[in-house]
Design goal:
The protein is elongated. By secondary structure, the chain is of the alpha+beta class. The protein is built from 5 helices and 10 strands.
Length: 210
Amino acid sequence: MRKDYVTVKGFGESEIIIQKSRFLTYVNRAETEQQAQAFIDEIKSQHKSANHNCSAYMIGEHDSIQKANDDGEPSGTAGVPMLEVLKKQGLKDTVVVVTRYFGGIKLGGGGLIRAYGKATTEGIQAAHIVERRLHHLMKVSVDYTWLGKVENEVRGSTYPLDRIDYADTVEIFLYVPVSTEETFVEWITEMTNGQAKIEQQSSKFLEFDT
């Protein structure tokens, strides 16, 4: 299972005009090919009168699913340069659609490649890039006499705090990046003179702005 990867935060859209042609870009996260295709179909249904609805997506831990569609533009001038932008930026689980309303001036092969590449880049910027890092949710149980010290140290640390439950003992839940559990346990153990009980709960990806 992957530990971290880069993708888009969510839906984003942008628009540029090149030689009187309108290029509308729509970007979203898609974790399956079905989600990607559904998003493409949705955009197409919104722009039935457009000259072209070109698309590209990359899905899977190892980018096992890569698709590009020129939708009527000259072969290799739209979908492929869009896909190349996704590859260059290292984006996973991302789908992009660029809708073109032709403005009457032909751009030529090179012009189209640059236009679709630029449109894709701006759409990605609008969607915002995030890094998703796999964390384990850890439960730290301590006696109430340790609450002040442990809570203060935890809140001042780099470990994201999930919640604190007040029961027979104090249960502090926080996220620890995978592969750093040993360091975390040593930190808590030293802080509490070995009086804390530490348990690993679930796993979850947390998102961080890049």
